[in-house]
Design brief:
The structure holds 2 protein chains of 2 kinds. By secondary structure, chain A is of the alpha/beta class. Chain A is about 35% helix and about 25% strand. The two termini of chain A are about 40 Å apart. By secondary structure, chain B is an alpha+beta fold. Chain B contains 2 helices and 9 strands, in the order H-E-E-H-E-E-E-E-E-E-E. In chain B, strands 1, 2, 5, 6, 7 and 9 form a 6-stranded antiparallel β-sheet that branches. In chain B, strand 3 and strand 4 form a beta hairpin. Chain B is elongated and about 40 Å long. The chains are: A alpha/beta, B alpha+beta. Chains A and B meet through helix 2 of A and strand 8 of B.
Chain lengths: ~200, ~140
C-alpha cells in the first residue's frame, strides 16, 4: 500500500532525474511536418520543391517539350529576398534532383565546371591517361534552358502572434530565344502564437 | 491511500493515453492502375477520431505525358474542423516504392463538412499505382 504523498514524491524524483540525464536522441521521419518555429524549415523546403516540380512537369507546353526529348537545363541561383538566412541552393538542388529523376530533363552543373576542367586537363596533359580514352575538350553540351527564381517573405507580428508569408517563384527561360517558357509560384503562410508558458 | 492494483490501473491508463496521443496513419487508399487501364481501389481505415471523421472520396487518375497524375477528394464528414497531414506514395508495377521520402507529409485543414481535393504527380513514368496516406 502506498500513500498518495509517496506517489507524488516518486513522480517528482523521476521527473527531476530525467532532467539531469543526457538528452534523449532519436531519429525521426525526414519528411514529417516540422513546426518548431515560424522560420523557414524542412517542411517548407520539401513542399516548395514537390509543388513546383509537379507544376512544371504537368504544364502542357512542357509536356509537349519533354515528350521524346530531354532538354538540357542550367540552374541559376534563387535570390533570397527574405530577412532570413535561407539556403536557396538547397531548394534548387531538391528541384533539380526531382526533375532529373523524372527522366524529363538533363542538367549541366556549373558548380563543377572548374573541377571538370582540372580533370580533363589532367587526362590530356599528364601522360598517364590513354589518349584514345581521354575526355576531349570542346564536346560538352550547352544548356538550352535556364532555371532561376526569387524567394520573398512578408512578416507581421503583434504582441501575441507572428505571421509569416513566403512566396517562392521559379522560372524556366529559353536561353536562345529569351522566351519565358514556364513560371511557377508556391505560397506558404505560417502563424505562430505565443504560448502561455513561453518566455 | 492508493492500493497497488489502483496504481497499476492508473499506469495502464497513462500508457494507453500516451499511445493514443501519438501520430498514426488513420486512412489509406491504395489505387492500382491495371495494364488494361482499369483500376483496383482499396480503402483501409484504422480506428481513431480522424478515421471516423475523414474519408477519401472520388479518385481521378489521368496522365501528363507518360507521368501518372491523380486527384483525390478528402471529405470531412464531421461538424468539426480537421487538421491533419497527407502524403502520396508511388509504386512501380512490381510494388516497389519509387522515390522513397520524395514526397513530404503535407499539412492540411478542412472545415466542417467540406471536401478538398489533393493532387499528385508521379515522380517518373515507372509509377503504376499509388497510395494516399492520412494521419493526424
Amino acid at each position: 500500500m502506498f500513500s498518495f504523498r509517496s506517489v507524488v514524491v516518486l513522480v517528482a524524483v523521476l521527473s527531476l532525474s530525467a532532467c539531469a540525464s543526457d538528452p534523449k536522441v532519436s531519429y525521426g521521419d525526414a519528411t514529417g511536418v516540422e513546426t518548431t518555429t515560424t522560420d523557414f524549415g524542412s517542411t517548407d523546403l520539401q513542399t516548395i520543391a514537390a509543388t513546383l516540380v509537379d507544376d512544371l512537369l504537368t504544364f502542357p507546353p512542357i509536356v509537349d517539350l519533354t515528350t521524346g526529348n530531354r532538354p538540357v537545363v542550367f540552374v541559376d541561383k534563387v535570390k533570397n529576398k527574405t530577412v532570413e538566412h535561407i539556403d536557396t541552393e538547397s531548394i534548387t538542388d531538391s528541384i533539380q534532383t526531382k526533375l532529373l529523376k523524372s527522366g524529363k530533363f538533363r542538367f549541366v552543373d556549373m558548380s563543377a565546371v572548374q573541377a571538370m576542367q582540372d580533370q580533363m586537363q589532367f587526362q590530356q596533359d599528364s601522360g598517364l591517361v590513354d589518349p584514345s580514352k581521354a575526355a576531349a575538350f570542346g564536346k560538352q553540351t550547352g544548356a538550352q534552358f535556364m532555371l532561376y527564381g526569387n524567394m520573398a517573405s512578408i512578416v507581421k507580428r503583434n504582441s501575441d502572434t507572428k505571421d509569416v508569408y513566403y512566396k517562392f517563384t521559379l522560372k524556366l527561360v529559353n536561353l536562345e530565344s529569351g522566351l519565358l517558357e514556364w513560371t511557377g509560384e508556391k505560397e506558404i503562410r505560417k502563424t505562430g502564437e505565443k504560448q502561455f508558458f513561453s518566455l | 491511500m492508493l492500493s497497488v492494483s489502483r496504481i497499476k490501473s492508473l499506469m495502464a491508463v497513462f500508457a494507453a493515453t500516451a499511445v493514443l496521443a501519438g501520430c498514426a496513419v488513420n486512412e489509406t487508399a491504395t489505387v492500382t492502375v491495371q495494364p488494361d487501364g482499369g483500376r483496383a481501389d482499396m480503402l483501409e481505415s484504422n480506428s481513431g477520431f480522424l478515421a471516423a471523421s475523414l474519408s477519401i472520396g472520388d479518385i481521378t487518375v489521368g496522365s501528363a505525358g507518360d507521368l501518372m497524375r491523380v486527384q483525390a477528394s478528402l471529405v470531412n464528414g464531421s461538424r468539426s474542423d480537421l487538421v491533419f497531414e497527407y502524403k502520396f506514395k508511388w509504386l512501380d508495377q512490381d510494388g516497389f516504392e519509387i522515390a522513397i521520402d520524395g514526397r513530404p507529409w503535407t499539412p492540411m485543414e478542412i472545415t466542417a463538412y467540406e471536401t478538398k481535393n489533393v493532387q499528385g504527380v508521379a515522380p517518373n513514368a515507372s509509377a503504376k499505382s499509388f497510395r494516399i496516406l492520412v494521419q493526424d
